[in-house]
């Protein structure tokens, strides 16, 4: 299905790709370019937003290449990018080389083709309404294509690489590294545990008088490939008006509605400077579709709105049993799932939108 990236212990790991003059550069030459990169070579820098520092992505002049630093094993990111390239029409940067970081002694550099364009956050306000509509339709098409990519046979949730091993989940509401989860049920149980932990904490704080109700995680949707870090800084528009998706570090196998999670968080960011423009956010339901916003608004925001510290508190899982509490008072009240009526209406809307996009070539970004 995709080229399996070998363990990154050698000087470099080459990936399957379209030939390029950049392939003639040795590892040593690329390392020198990386070490000599200057501050002005930083790509994607937005000082007003980069509170924790600029992204460590540098243009390797005079070549049409960039180098991106990754602190951990990048095999899943490279593998999934190759998977997307081989199974879809989604424009994804071509990885040319994976090199160990010689300065830090830890981490790696992904050397990729340079995309001559701007991120959507920087350019969105400059686009006309027709170009905006084309970008939005392209994003919807990309997400539909990602969902059709065959997943590895193991079908475990979260990031994955060519080895078939499940990897820890990052991004979205996971925040800290979580997992890995060997099965879909295990990931669902983690979500239910977070709700139960909070329920116990609330009960103790109230002196045993309050039972916070919660819904079980919905496992009815199959696992599909999700980028899981889509926001306007990870979407680029190049000089030929093609829409690119970058930064696949969090990508993995998740239920379809996880694709809405980063979109939703950025649309509701506390800082107006970081918040997704409303002129884009109003199309999120169209872009992701399939009742994804319902899951975000009715499940994820409730799960994520609590102090992160409670996830690390030591709690007694048998708290309610030891207190002799009636299970009906603390067990999940239902499954977090939209009504059948909402699902059917959304399916009809999705069918109509996909049909319209399929017959109208003007909606395709050139």
TrEMBL record:
Species of origin: Lentinula raphanica
Key words of the record: Kinase, Transferase
Biased composition (Low complexity): 1-16
SUPFAM superfamilies: Protein kinase-like (PK-like)
Record region (Disordered): 1-26
Stated name of the protein: Kinase-like domain-containing protein
PANTHER family: AMINOGLYCOSIDE PHOSPHOTRANSFERASE DOMAIN-CONTAINING PROTEIN, AMINOGLYCOSIDE PHOSPHOTRANSFERASE-RELATED-RELATED
Gene3D superfamilies, per database record: 3.90.1200.10
GO molecular function: kinase activity
Residue ranges annotated for the Aminoglycoside phosphotransferase domain, each copy included: 75-271
């Amino acid at each position: 299905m995709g080229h399996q990236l070998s363990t990154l212990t050698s000087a470099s790991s080459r990936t399957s790709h379209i030939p390029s003059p950049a392939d003639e550069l040795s590892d040593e030459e690329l390392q020198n370019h990386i070490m000599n990169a200057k501050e002005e070579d930083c790509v994607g820098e937005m000082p007003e937003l980069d509170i924790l520092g600029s992204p460590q992505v540098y243009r390797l002049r005079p070549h049409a290449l960039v180098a991106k630093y990754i602190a951990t094993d990048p095999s899943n990111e490279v593998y999934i990018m190759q998977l997307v390239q081989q199974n879809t029409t989604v424009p994804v940067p071509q990885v040319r080389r994976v090199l160990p970081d010689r300065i830090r002694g830890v981490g790696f550099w992904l050397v990729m083709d340079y995309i001559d364009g701007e991120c959507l956050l920087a350019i969105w306000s400059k686009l006309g309404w027709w170009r905006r509509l084309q970008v939005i339709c392209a994003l919807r098409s990309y997400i539909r294509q990602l969902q059709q990519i065959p997943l590895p046979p193991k079908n475990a949730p979260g990031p994955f690489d060519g080895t078939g091993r499940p990897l820890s989940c990052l991004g979205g509401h996971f925040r800290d590294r979580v997992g890995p989860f060997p099965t879909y049920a295990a990931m669902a149980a983690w979500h239910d545990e977070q709700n139960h932990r909070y329920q116990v904490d609330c009960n103790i704080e109230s002196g045993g008088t309050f039972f916070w109700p919660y819904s079980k995680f919905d496992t009815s949707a199959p696992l599909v490939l999700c980028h899981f870090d889509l926001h306007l800084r990870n979407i680029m528009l190049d000089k030929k008006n093609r829409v690119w998706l970058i930064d696949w570090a969090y990508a993995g196998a998740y239920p379809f509605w996880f694709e809405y999670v980063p979109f939703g968080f950025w649309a509701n960011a506390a800082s107006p400077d970081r918040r997704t423009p409303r002129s884009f956010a109003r199309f999120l339901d169209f872009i992701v579709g399939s009742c994804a916003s319902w899951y975000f608004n009715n499940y994820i925001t409730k799960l994520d709105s609590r102090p992160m510290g409670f996830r690390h508190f030591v709690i007694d899982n048998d708290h309610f049993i030891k207190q002799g509490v009636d299970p009906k008072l603390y067990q999940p009240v239902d499954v977090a799932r939209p009504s059948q009526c909402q699902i059917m209406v959304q399916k009809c809307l999705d069918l109509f939108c996909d049909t319209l996009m399929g017959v109208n070539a003007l909606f395709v970004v050139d």
